[in-house]
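Example S7 (structure tokens).
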């Protein structure tokens, strides 16, 4: 694992959100409500879909797959103007991120993300930061396809030695 370290600028997004847990995963439901209506979002910057997860500050300290978190399906916009019915605005505040490229099936993603949290972060010069995590589903993303690719953005901060 060899991520790029990026400083992200603030991003404005419009989309749908749901509260869920890893055990009560509602990702399919979230995207089923978002995808048919994404064409109604105005002022979009590109067509990349941002799949954002927002966790409580203690989520990873006492990890339990039943713990709830909020997940978003959204598009980036240049400004908040007209918001389609049933959608909301959301902002990623920005900051330092480790950006990993994932290629493969969704069913294998858990192993990939586990390696980031259990191997890469502990061995790196970074700590997990308490900000939004997100995946960018760009033009190389193919739902349920082994050649699907996406970017995985993990919020980090430098370790204080």
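Recovered sequence:
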């Amino acid at each position: 694992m060899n991520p790029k370290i990026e400083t992200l600028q603030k991003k404005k997004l419009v989309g749908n959100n749901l509260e869920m847990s890893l055990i009560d995963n509602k990702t399919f439901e979230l995207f089923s409500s978002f995808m048919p209506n994404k064409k109604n979002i105005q002022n979009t910057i590109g067509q990349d879909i941002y799949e954002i997860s927002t966790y409580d500050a203690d989520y990873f300290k006492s990890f339990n797959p039943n713990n709830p978190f909020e997940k978003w399906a959204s598009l980036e916009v240049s400004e908040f103007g007209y918001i389609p019915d049933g959608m909301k605005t959301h902002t990623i505040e920005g900051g330092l991120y480790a950006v990993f490229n994932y290629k493969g099936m969704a069913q294998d993603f858990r192993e990939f993300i586990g390696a980031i949290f259990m191997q890469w972060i502990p061995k790196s010069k970074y700590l997990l930061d308490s900000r939004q995590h997100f995946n960018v589903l760009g033009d190389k993303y193919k739902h349920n396809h082994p050649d699907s690719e996406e970017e995985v953005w993990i919020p980090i901060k430098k370790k204080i030695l």
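Notes on this example. Residues 15 and 38 are 8 Å apart (CA to CA).
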